[in-house]
Every structure is written in structure tokens, then in C-alpha cells.
Records
---
Amino acid sequence: MAILTAPGLATGIAYAAPAAPVAPASPAAPAAPLPEPGGKSLEQVRKEIEELYRQAGTATDAYNLAEAETKAQSNKIVEIANLVVAGKEKITALKNRAGAAARAQYRTGGMPPGAQLALSDDPNHYLDGAGRLRQGEKATSGMLSELDRTQADLQRYAEEAGQRWATLEANRVKSEESKKQIEEKIKAAEELESKLEAEEKARLIQLEQEAQYKAQTAWLSTGAMKDVNGAATEAGKRAVQFATAQIGKPYKWGAVGPASFDCSGLTSQAWLAAGRGIPRTSQEQLRLPKVELKDMRPGDLIIYFDDATHVGMYVGDGAMVHAPRPGRNVTLAGAGSMPIKAVVRPDA
């Protein structure tokens, strides 16, 4: 395999012209098939495990989205609580001002304007006082209107908080359901794999690599990479450098580092390290600006599968870096080793 040495990018394995998997030692006389669990071929087991992890990936995306929404709702509830506190303090201040105005009116005896004029020794003094009184009445009226508006705001805050709490609870339930599905699918996949002998497990990994190689080779044969030669931006280089520095760290669903990652946790943290925040999940990352495959450049994200439940970062030369699935580590792979749904650009 060639070595990727594009300027500004971390060194890695090139996949534009991948080498074939290592051939068996004696291709003319292949070894007898290994014992197969439950009467299934090892290839069937591989596909079954792959599908279980795919389903776990779908549930992981739902879990991550619910968790992100829960955090957003929690932050909004805190914001509303602060508004309520400020509103109550404002009402207290307005009531104090209203009380002071009422006490001032009491001190004047509350006499009608005509009586005050008749009893006044100085008409000019009265007229000045009458002007101040009208200003005071206007201020009091404005103060009472402000009090009404503030009380209405508090009522609205209370209603919004109630709605936010309901959404928060719904997201909690969604998160718990997704978590249960993830754990069930991963457990089923691990149980299938645990029934394999050591030699079968090694062969299973080889079958995975062969399937990826076959998909990558078929993809390249379409000429998909023929015109792809875009150069990474400075931000793209930083994102690639972060992502490739995580190679070897384990996949863990819901993880965003630093010790482990899931697929979208890796891509979102890589771009955060590059100075740009992007959505947390692969399905939300699909909403980023899309680019044609021929215009793809290092740092762009490749969204996989029809349901957009997996994502990797293109690093150049036909390769991408990704966190594959539970039981595997962050690694480089062929950009076409899985069905591509779209290419998106975080720094468009």
C-alpha cells in the first residue's frame, strides 16, 4: 500500500489502490472449512453480527439525539427559571413603588383638585403641584401596566416550563428505549461471536476485511475517485489531524472522547478541535451542506447507509477514518467500503 503524505495531513495508509487481502498459504488446496456455530456458515454469522451492530448503530443515533435534546431542554428550563426569578423581583419592586405612590397620595388627603385650588394660598404653587400630580398619575398608570405585563410574562414562563418538562420526560423515555435496544443488539452480537473458537474469530476478522476490500474495489472500479483531488482547508487539516490521532482508541456508543468514541462522536469532536461546532449525530450531520463526490476534500464527512446511521471523515487518497462498531477501534478504511449516502462539508 502507498503511504499518504499529503501536505498538512497526518501520515496514513492510502486506499485509492488498496492491496488485496493476504491470500491463503495454499490456494490450490484450501483448508477444510472451520466448524460452524448453529449450522450457519461463518459468512452468515459475519453478516448477522454486522446487521446487529448496524441496528445498534441506528439505536445509538437515536440515543445521542435524545441526549442532545435533553441537554438543550434542561438548559432552556434553567434559563426560564432565571427569567421567573427576575420577573418576581421586578414585581416586588413595582409593588413597592406603587405602595410609595399610594402613601404619598394619602399624605395629600386625597382632596379633589378644585378643593386644593380653593385652599391654596399660591395658585402658581398649586398649578406646579397639579402638574407633578398628573405626571405621578401617568407614572402610576405606566407602573401598573408594567406590573400586568410582568405577571403575564410569568404566566407564559410557567406554561413554557411545563411544555419543556414534558419534552424533557419524553426525551428521557426515548433515550432509555434506545439504550435498551443498543444493549440488546450488542449483547446478541457478542453472544454470537463468543460461540466462535479463536481460529474462527480470526477468520471472521479476515472475512470482514475481505468484504470491505471487495466493496472498496468495486467502488473504485466505477471511477469514483478519478476526479477527486480537492485540497483540505486549514480547518479541514486540523480536523483530519485530530481524527487520525485517535486511531487505535476503542469504539463506545455515546462516547465523545477522549478515551473512546462512537462514529459521530469522533467526527463532531474532530471538527470542534478544528474550531467549528457541528451537530452531534450522523443523521443531523447529514443536514450540513452537501458536496458532489468529485469535489470531496480531506475533512469532509461521508455519511453511510440509507438511514444515515454511520459517518466517517475523508482523509484523502480514497481513505477515511472512522469508529466502526463495538469491539473495534478507530481506524482507517476505504471510503467506499460501505454504501455512501452523501458527502457533507462542515466548513462550507
Note: Strands lie at 3-4, 12-13, 290-291, 301-304, 310-316, 319-322, 331-334, 340-344.
---
Amino acid sequence: MKILYAIQGTGNGHISRAREIVPLLQQHGDVELLISGTQADVKLSQQVAYQLHGFSFIFGKKGGVDHYETWKSMNLPRFVKDMRQLPLKNYDLVLNDFEPVTAWACKLKGVESVGLSHQASFQSKKVPKPKSIDWAQLVMKYYAPSTHYVGFHFKEYDDFIHTPVIRSEIRNLQTSNLGHYTVYLPAIADEMLVPILKQIPHVQWQVFSKHTKTSFTDGNVQVRPVNNEQFNLSLASCEGLFTGGGFEGPAEALFLGKKLLVVPMKFQYEQQCNAYALQEMGLPVIWGSNKNWLPVIQKWVLQPQTHRFNFPDETASVIEKVVSQFAR
């Protein structure tokens, strides 16, 4: 069996999930990997057959997507060319983790595909979503359309939705609490973030930044470039994680029993929905309308967080079901 697994390259969550899923897929056949996008800091250990430009959302430095840079990075002629050249008929199964080139190539050529992603869960009306109408809802629906969907979320909101894929390297971590707080906010510039954190001087902050190539320390704030292994060690030994409204990062923190505070990116509908779901579960959120983060962060640091989440290791059974149900 030949399997094409197409992965979105914006952010680290898609690649991180793929690192767990690829070896499981390889137990069922010959797997070829496709990645489009340019914003991930983590890499796959397996060879990538197709590295495409795709459509990437470019992180800004003020808490949201940089729409101008995102628009500049788009190349529609290249997108269409890549879409038409994909040899989809060579594959018995096409899986798509919110990757647009493969998704639209399948749609154009009448090839069935399976949306295997967190975003796939938003096909269900049972998933918590803000009531506001946002143009980004259309992006969620049409960015990477599939014929079938298998989703992941914080809860099993529907019969095709499963709890998060927690990587083996996270499941196998030895946890402790050394008292520091781990920070990953890729859409916030260091010069905006560090002065806020320094105002809580009794806390040690370990910040992993997309905006620096060298490590530095400013008072009680350590800033270092994003590194997967160092981040995992920091997360395993921290008191809590202060991060964006993504999915995999918050899910891993909750699995490890860490406190969690999220800041969803502005104008990023998926992150708004994730934060809305977490808030429904009683977890703290800093919304874009909040211009003064300090009181929220101080309260979060001082108060315990007693939520417990059970994310069983069911990824292998999910993949086996997908292969048996959807392979041609």
C-alpha cells in the first residue's frame, strides 16, 4: 500500500503530531511525506518527498498573524502548478493534516482524501466556538477540504473526534516542578513580552522565542531560540506553561499536569476556538481585548490549577481504523 501524508508547515503542532503518526503509518505501507509552508521550527526525521511552498500564515510580533507578510508570501501560480503536478493516482490513501495543496489537488482530480487533523474536528457543530461571525470560519472550511474527516480535540465532542495525539517523547518524560514557568508565544516580540514578565520578579521565566537566534537573560527572564529538546525539558520541570492558543502545546501541558495560561492569536479563528474551549473548562485566557496582561498573569501564578485531563494513548488504534476504513 502506498500512502501520501500531507502536512501543514505553519507552526510546530502539525509537524509534532506527524512525528508520532508517521511511524504508525509505516506499519501499514510505504509512506511518502509532503510538507507545505515555512513557519515550523521542528523537523521530521524521515525523508520528505515533496517540500512545497503552499500558503503559510506568517506570525507577526504584536499578537497576531502578519497579514501583509502572509499576502506577500502567497504565490498562486506556484500553488496551482504544484497542485496539478502531484501524482495522486499513485497512492492508495491520501491523508491531509490541514495542508492546502494536496487537499485542493484531490478535490480537482476527484481523489478521496482524509482530513486527519485538529482542524478536522471543526466540521462538527458540537465543537465549542465563539458566537462571533469571522471571515476565518470560511478559511477553516475551505482552506484544506477533504472528503472524510478524523479530528482531534481536548474532548471527544463527536463520534469522529479523538483526544489529542501526545507524542511518545512527551508521554515518557519524567516530570518535576522546579518552580519556573515556560513561555512560548511565537506571535509576540521579545521586546514586548520580556518587560511584562520582569514585573513579576519572584518568578523565573524560560522563554522560547521565534525572534532571536541567540540566548540572553534579562533579570528573571531567560530567552532562548526555539529548540524542541530544550523546550520539552523545560516543560517537564516547570510549574506552568504560558503559550498561544494552539492545540498540541496546551494539550501536552495539560497531559503533564502543568498549569496553563493561553493567549490566542488575534485574527486566528482556530486559536480563538481553542481558547474558547479551554475557558469553558475553567482555564484562564488572555483575550485580544485585554490590554493589561499583568493582573491576569499575576493571578495565574499565585493561584493553583487543579484541572486533570486524561488523554489515553489511542493514536495507533486511530491510524489502524483510518487505514482499514479509507484505503482504496
Note: The first helix runs from residue 13 to 26.
